[in-house]
Specification:
CATH superfamily: Winged helix-like DNA-binding domain superfamily/Winged helix DNA-binding domain
Domain HTH marR-type: 9-139
CATH class: Mainly Alpha
Pfam family, one: MarR
Strand content: 5-15%
Number of strands: 3
Number of helices: 7
Number of domains: 1
Order of helices and strands: HHHEHHEEHH
InterPro entries: HTH_MarR-typ, MarR/SlyA-like, WH-like_DNA-bd_sf, WH_DNA-bd_sf
CATH architecture: Orthogonal Bundle
Radius of gyration: 19 Å
Distance between the termini: 30 Å
Helix content: 55-70%
Protein name: MarR family winged helix-turn-helix transcriptional regulator
Structural class: alpha+beta
Shape: elongated
Organism: Paractinoplanes globisporus
Amino acid sequence: MPDVAETERADLGAMVMRLGRRLLAMEQPILERHGVTMWAYVVLTGLRDGPARAQATLAAAIGADKTRLIPILDDLQKRGLIERDPDPADRRVRLLGLTPEGRRLQGAIQADIRAAEELILQEASDREAFVRALGELSR
């Protein structure tokens, strides 16, 4: 028989959705201040650890539709934040990577987001356990 406290708590999905909405609302002004959309930031973060071999590879890694990713990549390239260079091993494929300015911008946005997250995490009684559990469950 389930514990009464266990049956009276909100479902995990409901709690995660409320937290997700709160985090998105917190991040939106930060992204606007830096002049990027959420998807542009996701792309910059997806390329942070090294180049991606092909747009389809990046799209799969970040959970984006590859056809909807093209205008985002075009904009980031036009702004000098990413490069799309031919792959020497296969000239039909483009290697996607951050420029130094793209790396700087991604780091600045992430620092601002992490600072804002700290304010939210102050409300958690055991923030380290929360962040660890969230990381484990989101893999």
